[in-house]
Amino acid sequence: MSGCLLVINPSSGKENKDGLSEKISAMLSKHFDRIELRYTEKAGDAEAFVDLAKDLNMDTYFVVGGDGTVNEAINGLAKMENPLKFGFLPMGTVNDLARALGIPLKLEDALSALEHITWQPLDVGQINDQYFMNVVALGEIPYAVNHTSSEEKSKFGFFAYLKDGFNALINDEGQTYHIKLDGEELDAITTEIILVALTNSVGSVEQMVADARVDDGLLHLLVLKDTNALEIGQEALQNLFDGNVSQANNVSYYKGQHIEITSDDKSDDIESNVDGDPGPTLPLELSILPSKLKVMVPKA
Ligand SMILES: Nc1ncnc2c1ncn2[C@@H]1O[C@H](COP(=O)(O)OP(=O)(O)OP(=O)(O)O)[C@@H](O)[C@H]1O
């Protein structure tokens, strides 16, 4: 008998929640014999419920929420040797993983798209001792975003805020970083922003990293160059938001499986942003877990 634990974050998103669990259960009942429902109450619940799903002998773990909830689910699943299968419905403001996987962002559309499903292999990223599914950002700008109130963030979204707030946020020349990519030391770089992306969609910009595939087994490293000159920085950031960053002049673009990032500057103060939330400080070690998960997507 196939079973699915359905976990809903009742605080995510702004859509009307009337009949939400019934509608989702109806869709899931087409694919599973047995469905159990739980609601999250606080940070960490969507990660902890993975253990409950295992105890209940479920084979699939399905969450409904924003990027925070999806990231928690990934953190629960990725540490399993043989992870449960994964599914989700996007309810947040950014929803990059859904965009990359072709899961519609509107609830009713997603529910009908998932009437017919297939299981897509999905890479998971590791940063120090935690996991991510979409993007790690590092530098002055992500730092400022980390220290922005969640109201502002939920109003504008992570990168929308970043874009609108770019002028206001620039206040110095950036940090100097040392980056080792697959064991090779790159030239030291002074920059305001470093991104490590897993999917083509970053910060709601669906083709920012046009080459990235959810199961290509690669980390996509983007470094904004020449940020001492504000105008160049702005132009490069605009290139990021216009998509297809590998074509942009002021962005260095690399691919690899293992990245180490250190800095001569005050490392303890340099904080990362992981999937839109504050992450670990330097030094950072990132790696890819190729096709670690199988995720439910609409059948083409
Ligand atoms: N019942 C609850 N009430 C209030 N907050 C909750 C509840 N359950 C979980 N949370 C909080 O919600 C956070 C995750 O929110 P999530 O990011 O999924 O939604 P969102 O903020 O609407 O989406 P996005 O980040 O894309 O804007 C968790 O880290 C946790 O702190």
UniProtKB/TrEMBL annotation:
It comes from the Bacteria. InterPro entries: ATP-NAD_kinase_N (IPR017438), Diacylglycerol/lipid_kinase (IPR005218), Diacylglycerol_kinase_cat_dom (IPR001206), Lipid_Phosphate_FormReg (IPR050187), NAD/diacylglycerol_kinase_sf (IPR016064), YegS/DAGK_C (IPR045540). GO terms for biological process: phospholipid biosynthetic process. The keyword NAD does not apply. Its cofactor is Mg(2+). GO terms for cellular component: plasma membrane. Residues 1-131 form the DAGKc domain. Keywords: ATP-binding, Kinase, Lipid biosynthesis, Lipid metabolism, Magnesium, Metal-binding, Nucleotide-binding, Phospholipid biosynthesis, Phospholipid metabolism, Transferase. GO terms for molecular function: ATP binding; ATP-dependent diacylglycerol kinase activity; metal ion binding. Belongs to the diacylglycerol/lipid kinase family. This is Diacylglycerol kinase family lipid kinase. It comes from Aerococcus kribbianus. The lineage of its organism: Bacteria, Bacillati, Bacillota, Bacilli, Lactobacillales.
